[in-house]
From TrEMBL:
<protein>
    <recommendedName>
        <fullName>ORC1/DEAH AAA+ ATPase domain-containing protein</fullName>
    </recommendedName>
</protein>
<dbReference type="Pfam" id="PF13424">
    <property type="entry name" value="TPR_12"/>
</dbReference>
<dbReference type="GO" id="GO:0016887">
    <property type="term" value="F:ATP hydrolysis activity"/>
</dbReference>
<dbReference type="InterPro" id="IPR053137">
    <property type="entry name" value="NLR-like"/>
</dbReference>
<dbReference type="Pfam" id="PF13401">
    <property type="entry name" value="AAA_22"/>
</dbReference>
<dbReference type="InterPro" id="IPR049945">
    <property type="entry name" value="AAA_22"/>
</dbReference>
<dbReference type="InterPro" id="IPR027417">
    <property type="entry name" value="P-loop_NTPase"/>
</dbReference>
<feature type="domain" description="ORC1/DEAH AAA+ ATPase">
    <location>
        <begin position="33"/>
        <end position="121"/>
    </location>
</feature>
<dbReference type="InterPro" id="IPR011990">
    <property type="entry name" value="TPR-like_helical_dom_sf"/>
</dbReference>
Length: 704
């Protein structure tokens, strides 16, 4: 007997959007070309049921319905042969090739439909089984996304249900009706999220609730969604593997069992990547993170936390998985992803010319629940991809912020919010805020991290001291120098005692304290510390090391504050040359070095040189970091000052007025830099005879 479509499940809920698509493409006849209509999606999303419902609703649309199990070429041949023989009239000894000839010669004016169900095997070649005949409509259901390429009408990618459809399916399976109590509705909504609105999982949950419900007398005692949710949270894997005892559509597999069928067909490298992806947040996993990590050889780009012997082993495993012929090959990664997409285990989307991957929430949960991966290094591999893919070395702090924000979220899920590794990454996120001039955000996050470090690690732990130093820097940037000094003095004393005088962290504390003394006008103390720091770094790290160059830059600014312009210029020019050569012309630290040299030139009355370099710096700052970045505000104020000294008041005002507004917004009205700029702008308005503007802007000056 020829195979027929499976019965429509009693739990089937019609999905409006997919239904409109399938009817609009299949019901209206077309004489111009043959219709091939693939429906793809992950296992259990309702592909087969949608086709069964369509055939039930349109029983007279087709003269012949040929329904084929397409799980293998042998099953296709067997079902085609069975169909042909069932025609009778001399076809009793037909083979599958005869069936193909019949399909190719279907009478004109008769509409036939050929359904290939469960064509999931990515190695299966369907082409030999596709008869060319405009009278024969072909429908394909598959987990293999690539079969969408066969479409001549529309490729229906069947995803999760809408929230309303999902709730209806779960209620129907549980034999429950609206309205529900507030608690039950809240639990139902949470279940929809946990199950990702996947049809098979929703029916599984509803059926479980129905089976455990009871009737005493005429009173129904339902097993509630709240009870199921509680059980789901503690026994998710066991529940998702359970099969329904009996089903009209013979689909008795649990949600996880359905996914297991795909997993067994995956290559090992695809399984490995899937487990790594499952440890990200399931939405918008950036493929660029893998490429960037690979260009850094999967090594840390900054020190997050101490590494043990497993660090090198983790890097080696990532290279084994993602390298080809001992080097990074993006095509190799794309091939692995394509294998996962062929089973609809991942989906992909493009944003701003970048490729992002997505996992269904239930696929993520299924991957994480697998007992066999507990001893595997996937967690370490995932974190290593993230830590190796940052933008710090390039000074691209906006991109770093996005990555660190994702890291904090992912580490929080994997390690826990209070874990030292999560806190280390949170500190790095605060650093990205700091370098973008978002000091209040940096301060808020650092206070949280510092509090947790004090409780978990203790006052003298290096990470606790490091965060205190970072907090001091955020205070200094806000002009809160007394608070900054107190923290920095403590950090320097602790590091000298615990780490020793020549430890890089001790030297960093001394460098920070030197700059705070400079901001407070304590120039002798500042110079003494600055010279010591530069000497130490030259001796320990060498002249060209970035930290040595940074120390030279700091000392140059101290000389500026002392009016020692020749010494400031000599050091500043050398710093600019080194940074241009080592970091590149447009690295933020290079631009800062140029800005410092502008100040030195201007203070010596070398206006042409100061103006030329100052204009270049301002253009770079605005283009790279934006007009509202503190460094761009400073660059605008400096160039305005150069115009002002040359009595070019209109040009100076045009630059400084928007810089003052940006400073009030970003730094705050009472910040010392903002107050200095307001004073200068008041002077410029008075020089231009704009007394009303001068009076308005001067009202913003801080009155002591």
């Amino acid at each position: 007997m020829a195979k027929t479509a499976l019965p429509v499940s009693p739990y089937f809920v019609l999905r409006e959007k997919p239904w409109n698509i399938i009817t609009s493409h299949l019901v209206v006849p077309s004489s111009s070309r043959q219709k091939i209509f693939p429906i793809t999606g992950m296992g259990g999303c309702g592909k087969t049921q949608l086709v069964s419902y369509f055939l039930r609703e349109y029983p007279n649309l087709y003269v012949q319905t040929i329904y084929v199990d397409a799980s293998s070429s042998s099953s296709i041949k067997a079902h085609l042969q069975t169909w042909a023989r069932a025609l009778g009239g001399g076809h009793e000894r037909d083979v599958w090739e005869d069936a193909m000839r019949i399909l190719k010669t279907a009478p004109r004016g008769e509409r036939w439909i050929l359904v290939f169900d469960n064509a999931d095997n990515p190695r299966l070649n369907l082409t030999p089984f596709l008869p060319i005949n405009t009278e024969v409509t072909i429908v394909i259901t598959s987990r293999n996304h690539a079969l969408g390429n066969l479409s001549t009408t529309h490729h229906l990618e069947l995803g999760e249900m809408t929230a309303d459809e999902a709730l209806a399916a779960m209620l129907q399976a549980a034999r429950r009706q609206l309205p529900l109590s507030d608690e039950e509705m809240g639990s139902a909504q949470e279940l929809l999220m946990e199950l990702g609105c996947l049809a098979v999982a929703l029916v599984q949950a509803g059926t479980y609730c129905r089976q455990l419900s009871s009737t005493i007398g005429d009173i129904l005692r339902p097993y509630t969604f709240t009870q199921y949710l509680r059980l789901f949270k503690s026994h998710r894997a066991d529940l998702m593997k359970k099969a329904e005892p009996s089903s009209l559509d013979n689909y008795q597999r649990g949600a996880y069992t359905t996914l297991d069928l795909s997993y067994t067909a995956l290559a090992q490298e695809s399984r490995d990547l899937l487990h790594i992806l499952s440890l990200f947040h399931y939405s918008d996993i950036p493929l660029a993170a893998f490429a960037r990590a690979a260009t850094h050889a999967f090594k840390d780009q900054e020190e997050y936390h101490p590494r043990d012997n497993s660090y090198e082993a983790t890097i080696s495993k990532l290279k084994d998985l993602l390298y080809r012929d001992m080097e990074w090959n993006e095509i190799h990664l794309q091939e692995i992803i394509q294998n996962l997409r062929s089973f609809s285990l991942v989906t992909a989307s493009t944003m701003n010319d970048s490729l992002f991957l997505q996992l269904h929430p239930l696929i993520q949960a299924w991957c994480r629940d697998m007992k066999l991966i507990a001893a595997q290094p996937y967690r370490a591999m995932t974190m290593q991809v993230l830590t190796a893919s940052n933008y710090v070395s390039e000074g691209r702090w906006a991109e770093s912020e996005k990555l660190y924000a994702k890291l904090v979220k992912d580490f929080g899920q994997i390690r826990g919010e209070g874990h030292p590794e999560t806190m280390a990454v949170a500190s790095s996120l605060a650093t990205s805020y700091y370098h973008q001039g978002r000091w209040i955000e940096a301060e808020k996050l650092l206070l949280k991290v510092a509090g947790q470090h004090m409780i978990i690690l203790g006052m003298d732990h290096p990470e606790t001291i490091k965060v205190a130093s970072m907090l001091a820097a955020s205070y200094s940037a806000q002009g809160r120098w007394a608070e900054s000094e107190r923290l920095e003095v403590d950090a320097l004393a602790q590091r000298k005692r615990i780490l020793g005088i020549d430890h890089p962290d001790t030297i960093l504390s001394a460098a920070n304290l030197a700059m705070t003394y400079r901001s407070q006008g304590r120039l002798t103390e500042s110079e003494k510390l600055g010279v010591e720091v530069l000497e130490q770094r030259r001796r320990i790290l060498g002249i060209e090391h970035p930290e040595t160059v940074f120390a030279a830059s700091n000392l140059s600014t101290i000389y500026q504050s002392q009016g020692r312009w020749a010494e400031a210029e000599k050091l500043g020019a050398k710093v600019l040359e080194q940074r241009r050569r080592i970091l590149g012309v447009e690295h933020p630290d290079t631009i800062k070095a140029a800005l410092n040299l502008v100040v030195t030139y201007a203070s010596q009355g070398r206006w042409a040189e100061a103006e030329k370099l100052g204009a270049e710096v301002l253009e770079q700052q605005r283009r790279i970091q934006g007009s509202d970045h503190p460094d761009a505000i400073l660059a605008a104020a400096n160039l305005s000052g150069i115009y002002q000294i040359q009595n070019r008041y209109e040009e100076a005002t045009a630059l400084l007025a928007p810089a003052v507004q940006a400073g009030i917004k970003v730094l705050g009205q009472d910040h010392p830099n903002t107050q200095a700029d307001i004073t200068n702008l008041t002077f410029l308005y008075e020089k231009l005879g704009q007394s009303r503007n001068a009076q308005e802007i001067s009202s913003l000056l801080y009155r002591r």
